[in-house]
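Our platform keeps sequence and structure together, in a single record for each protein. Such a record has a labelled line for the sequence and another for the backbone structure tokens. Nothing more is needed to write down the fold, since each code stands for a local backbone conformation. For reference, a complete record is included directly beneath this paragraph:
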Amino acid sequence: MHVDHLTFAVGSAGLKSESDRLGTLLGERFRDGGFHPRFGTRNHILPLADERYLEVVEVLEHPAAEKAPFGQAVRARSEMGGGWLGWVVSVDDLAPYETRLEREAVRGSRHFPDGRLLEWEQIGVKGLISDPQLPYFIKWESDPTVLPSALHGDIHLDRIEIAGTRSRVEDWLGVDLGEVFDGVKLKFSSEYGQPGLLSATFSTPRGKVKI
């Protein structure tokens, strides 16, 4: 189980402006990640170290966005002003989660601007919608050379702070998290009313950056 990426939903500024803002804070430029036809969204991505990446995502006026849970989740977060949508863990096998959640994984895909196709399966977005402290699960289907994390950036994800409870997330994942999970420090804060991802701290060549 791997902390694969974090997702940030845009606010009223739009995808380019939000990507430029975050890129300025982190000292790197985001890349155009392409369009998700099954979800009615598009994204910009920033490859990180340790086979992770940061995603900034925008919902589109597209029929898929009204039906797909991921499109619904992005729209809801954007209508709240934007911000951290959640975190995603990658696994080698989604079957145990399909059994536990009693539903099948959903296929996803997007074309990079250069035409390459990225494909995956995911499950758990409905859990994220009902309880935003929970990550969802992804299994990559494409060749590792195509994955967003394959570009190996110089920025490390150091810590994430989550409004919620450690035991709830451990039950969802089916593992004990510890203070550090897959090389990422985890801090849980229970004093907030609304659960979700509060902040992420990155180690950059220019020092620590908290967003």
Observations:
- The chain has six helices and 13 strands.
- The chain has one domain: 2-210.
- The helical segments are 15-26, 63-67, 69-79, 95-101, 125-130, 166-173.
